[in-house]
Amino acid sequence: MLHRLKTDFRLSIITLLGVSAILGITPFAVMRYFQGNLLAGLVDTTILLGITVVLVYAWVTGDTRRSGLVLAFIACTGAVVVGTVVGEPGLFWLYPCLVTTFFLANPRIAVFLNVASVVALMVHGGAFRSEIQMWSFASTAFVVSACAYVFAHRNHDQRERLEHLATIDPLTGIKNRRSMDQELDLAAANAERTGLPYALVLLDIDHFKKINDEHGHGVGDDVLIEMVELLLKNTRKSDQLFRFGGEEFVLLLPGVDGIGLKAVMNNLQQVLRKYMKHPGGSVTASFGVALLEHGESVDSWLARADAALYEAKETGRDRIVFADHQRAPELAAATAGSPSGV
């Protein structure tokens, strides 16, 4: 539970605001029943039930977009109803709603909810003692909404920057290992659901340490950047490239297996052989390839590709090794007699 709250910002906001609202409203609901104000008590109870349902839905389904929108609607509508039923004391409940809408819904919807709530209270007019108080309330509500919008907007931008930094490799601009873990989980789930084949490629630049030692890390960085550019130009938009660490990369290929996978790998190998250069000469890479098997875990899938890469490097480098050929007869047949197949 704590992990979900740490990793899902919108869910954490919905949970925090929902729990705070429940804790804040419940005492007033109980008090109003004791005071005999059944209408106000029923309004509070309805709001509490709505918030509880939204919280449960958000946690069970993970659909925080709809949950946030519904929670914002319940909060604003509830505050308006409380204001019309209770009168002046109920006006104060609208202020936290004016702030939280910008964290629960997109800005346009939040602005609409805030304006509609204030206008509804002003049109009803029963919660205000005078016209001056009504317009003072409208002015302060506008100021609160404007400040909340600015803060929420800045918070959103900063969060996007942080998420970008946390998932993108700063040198090459491609996704990092954290993103890879998420995408591999999604790929495995999609494969189980649809039967779509997925291939995982681990590739490692041959003798990369020697390049760094003899020509400097600047040249090594240029090699990494150039290789990423070549791979992106020679793969499909649906393929995904990740930096696994150092000079190791992972390529996720959906919808390819057998002879098609063999052709893709041979093409990538030839492209790198032809175009990858550095001051000391050409640059090559070793490849370990594994097809996702039915019911296989991501860890096992990655381990088989890693074992194939290790074999490629141990048997001479600049090679393509396919994992567990005995489990994929058509792939074995396609690679039989090829110097890059094992």
UniProtKB/TrEMBL annotation:
The chain crosses the membrane at residues 12-34, 40-60, 67-87, 93-123, 135-152. One of its GO terms (molecular function) is diguanylate cyclase activity. It is an enzyme of class 2 (transferase). Its cofactor is Mg(2+). It comes from the Bacteria. Its EC number is 2.7.7.65. It catalyses: 2 GTP = 3',3'-c-di-GMP + 2 diphosphate. One of its GO terms (biological process) is cell adhesion involved in single-species biofilm formation. Signal peptide: none annotated. Residues 196-325 form the GGDEF domain. One of its GO terms (cellular component) is plasma membrane. CDD domains: GGDEF. Keywords: Membrane, Transmembrane, Transmembrane helix. The keyword Transmembrane applies. SMART domains: GGDEF. Pfam families: GGDEF. This is diguanylate cyclase. It comes from Marinobacter guineae.
